[in-house]
């Protein structure tokens, strides 16, 4: 495809989501939150009371789960529907993240979600955020970024994010969960979290959102 893609990969709390959304809005490109797909399957599996240790059931669940992204025309906020139910808030919880990470280690689940992700590549361009956007889903993307930040800072960002949403969490517990999830994402056999060779790496520790957005936008053709 000749439609340009900017991939933004990195661990949880590295700022991928926030940066990707802002860059997409300013550039006028579409946005894919690939983690939301894995989270959606995790949440649907929870609703169906499936066993996270039963890969066959989870693969079936992946095929059966409807996932729709809807942008509120007024607030521009993104709502995510799972099987026609608004699951936006539930998707953000660390429980959903942990379920997503377990499910994301199953090769058939990843394969089943491949085409759904590639379908987001539409003119005039796409910003895709995740773990394997630059390595597996869009290896031919002309623009690739890998975001990192210290584990402490990432835990703190997630903590604030969840607190703002009214979810009560414990910072130490969150840090431990994030480190466990990162280790699983980085060490799995399929599509492990790692920078693409041609990715520009940005360590966002101590950097403000605007600074990172500008550094990323500087890589793209001006509109
Ligand atoms: O980015 P987010 O925290 O929403 O992703 C949730 C989980 O989904 C990650 O911990 C990872 O295991 C999985 N994921 C993935 N590949 C992606 C995006 C997310 O394996 N492209």
TrEMBL record:
Region (Disordered) location: 1-14
Entry keyword set: ATP-binding, Cytoplasm, Kinase, Nucleotide-binding, Transferase
One Pfam family of this chain: Cytidylate_kin
Protein name: Cytidylate kinase
Record domain Cytidylate kinase: where: 7-219
Record localization: Cytoplasm
Enzyme type, top EC level: transferase
Chain sites annotated for binding ATP: 10-18
Family that this chain belongs to: Belongs to the cytidylate kinase family. Type 1 subfamily.
Chief location: cytoplasm
InterPro entries: Cytidylate_kin, Cytidylate_kinase_dom, P-loop_NTPase
Enzyme Commission identifier(s): 2.7.4.25
Keyword NAD: no
Record's catalysed reaction(s): CMP + ATP = CDP + ADP; dCMP + ATP = dCDP + ADP
Coiled-coil intervals, chain numbering: none
GO MF assignments: kinase activity
Domain of life: Bacteria
């Amino acid at each position: 495809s000749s439609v340009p893609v900017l991939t933004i990969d990195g661990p949880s709390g590295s700022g991928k989501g926030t940066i990707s959304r802002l860059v997409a809005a300013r550039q006028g490109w579409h946005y894919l939150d690939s983690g939301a797909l894995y989270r959606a399957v995790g949440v649907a599996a929870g609703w169906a009371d499936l066993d996270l240790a039963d890969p066959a059931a989870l693969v079936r669940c992946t095929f059966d789960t409807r996932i729709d992204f809807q942008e509120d025309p007024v607030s521009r906020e993104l709502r995510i529907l799972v099987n026609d139910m608004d699951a936006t808030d539930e998707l953000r919880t660390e429980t959903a993240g942990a379920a997503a990470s377990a499910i994301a280690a199953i090769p058939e689940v990843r394969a089943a979600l491949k085409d759904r992700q590639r379908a987001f590549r539409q003119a005039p361009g796409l910003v895709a955020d995740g773990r394997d956007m630059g390595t597996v889903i869009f290896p031919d993307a002309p623009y690739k970024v890998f975001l990192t930040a210290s584990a402490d800072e990432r835990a703190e960002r997630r903590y604030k994010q969840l607190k703002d949403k009214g979810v009560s969490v414990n910072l130490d517990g969150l840090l431990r969960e994030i480190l466990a999830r990162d280790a699983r994402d980085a060490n799995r056999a399929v599509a492990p979290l790692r920078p693409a060779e041609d990715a520009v790496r940005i360590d966002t520790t101590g950097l403000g959102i605007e600074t990172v957005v500008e550094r990323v936008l500087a890589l793209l053709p001006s509109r």
